[in-house]
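fyi for ur records
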Amino acid sequence: MRKKQREPLVEYLSRNNNNNTFVLVPIVDLYSISDTRGNNDFEFILTSPSSYVELNHRYEVQALTTLFNKQANTAQEKFGSVIFAHAASSDILSLKDLKGKT
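which gave:
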């Protein structure tokens, strides 16, 4: 979702939360989100499920609400990911082989 698409949400939150001002700060990668949270630079975050899992594990953040992804008029409760490894890489054959790699 692009910044322009999120502006109405930021305006709504600012209007409806005792005149607290909400500011949208785009953060484009998980490392920046984690660094920003580690510095206590934000109080709320809109993020992906995988990013939430990371932040919850590292900083014990709690979800205030979630967005259900709808497909065929049915809320989806699960999400998936794919991990690609180069075909010439013989040192990554299972999930445990990812430990310590970037």
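Residues 3-98 form one domain. thats all i got for now
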